[in-house]
């Protein structure tokens, strides 16, 4: 048996040597993404574009070691520690859990951490130290304004959200705080797992909400097609928070472009990687620009006409 | 690339989670009780720790508080099962589900422990003793001490009268009844000890990675079961190796499997598949080893 363990150990050692040593001269970027998810994937794509926009070439100026934790917290920690042990030159965390794990793994190490898709960097304690990046805070004022423009008579907005997702909790708090300014009340239902989402939606429909709003809640967005079946049957429009949700059938969304967010992050990373700036000195950035996306098919189905006031600014979404 | 650092990190993770493996060893292997409380008591330990640390409570004290609350969680499952006559799986599910909300109440969905706050790895007695060695080695030494200390305590406990009763309940509970002891009480004690260990593991994880997340408990029961089965399979042949030692090694092997899968540099989505194949290889190898030994010993006798 001892032999067996030894074999295993040897395989692992060999693997480490083979994958590690060949490219030592080229700076290595370790990207840790919390899980596969359309907006997070867009962040990563954008990030690489951002590096290239800054004049860096993959394979010459940097190599990437990409890992995703599949939404598993203990694997998330191990990925971060692997990057730290390998002494990568730069770490990139996509989504809050990845960013905080990476930053924790660099304690007593001098590796800069760049994050993206983190809603609240202050809450996540990523606002000081050898760490910087971009926040994907939702443009909630713009979202409320959009719903008001599209549905002048609407009174209540229904939102389902997961009680364990920090991004959703801070967004719900802001929604509740700002809704009265636009003459809305918020009906929010918190759920703990994905299987409860449709029940929450049924409950909201029975409460006669006039519109639904989707945050970037992973559980809720994950079953969006099922939600759309229910709300379309009840003729209640759903508004989203990003382009991918509009592609799936939401009537409209006010949201940031995750590719753009990624590009901005990539440009920051390029500065740090080439030594033009230090992560310690760069403050984190919140993207102020948002876009309004609309889905013409969904609008027609629900007999909503785009008001002139927002028509010019919108980006109609191509459906494939 | 630093292979030593990689190994140190992997073993450290294995040692921290070994406390959870001991717990599942007690409930699943000794008591024959599939205890799902673990998925709730593990983040419970972390939640309490994160809140206490951010309120500047002594990190060593938080270990004890987490331990106590974990014990309480185990007590609740035991009480539901034994006194209210609810089946083992359901009793665990009830406590685990309740704890999810309780954890959210205690620490919210996420809580980060800032670097300026001291943990057991950066303060107190451990810091006095090992403060001058680099953090990742310090973490290894400290977790090794904790994991071995609890292993020894458990080994000693299993030899006491109470510990023997615990083992009897799982093997043949008639014996316990014949000894005029209440097997229900013994089960409750076992669950209490186990979940205290689980919460302690959660507490150390929180101190080590400086964060609590309400979803960190997901899959911990499965982890515990896998390490117990792997550990006991690997050491099946060696009767003298204690169960606690076997699951300690199981825990490290589990974390090493993930590390190997990570290091192989395969597409990220294949990670779990590679890990599960590694498990299978180890289990089949363990069984194969056992069979060949049997054949050898038969031949020897003939």
Give a description of the structure.
The complex is a heterodimer of chains A (320) and B (302). By secondary structure, chain A is α/β, with parallel strands linked by helices. Chain A has two domains: 142 residues, Rossmann fold, CATH 3.40.50.2300; 143 residues, 3-Layer(aba) Sandwich (Rossmann fold). Chain A has 13 helices and 13 strands. Chain A has a seven-stranded mixed beta sheet with strand order 7-6-8-9-10-12-13, sandwiched between helices. Chain A has a six-stranded parallel beta sheet with strand order 2-1-3-4-5-11, with helices on both faces. The longest helix of chain A has 19 residues. With 302 residues, chain B is mainly α. Chain B has one domain. In chain B, 77% of the residues lie in helices and 2% in strands. Chain B is built from twelve helices and two strands. In chain B, strands 1-2 form a two-stranded antiparallel ribbon. The longest helix of chain B has 31 residues. Chain B is globular and about 55 Å long. The model of chain B has no long low-confidence stretch (mean pLDDT 90). The chains are: A alpha/beta (320), B mainly alpha (302). At the A-B interface, helix 1, strand 2, helix 3 and helix 4 of A face helix 1, helix 4, helix 11 and helix 12 of B.
Key terms:
heterodimer; A: 320 residues; alpha/beta; Rossmann fold; seven-stranded mixed β-sheet; six-stranded parallel β-sheet; 13 helices; 13 strands; elongated; B: 302 residues; mainly alpha; two-stranded antiparallel ribbon; 12 helices; globular; ABC_transp_permease (chain B)
Just give the CATH class of the largest domain in chain A: Alpha Beta
The poorly predicted ranges of chain B are: none
Portion in helices of chain A: 40-55%
Helix content of chain B: over 70%
Q: Strand portion of chain B, in percent?
A: under 5%
Strand count, sense and barrel status of the largest sheet of chain B are: 2 strands, antiparallel
Largest interface: A-B, 54 and 56 residues
Largest beta-sheet details of chain A: 7 strands, mixed
Which structural category do the helix and sheet elements of chain A fall into? alpha/beta
Task: Quote the distance from N terminus to C terminus of chain A.
Answer: 56 Å
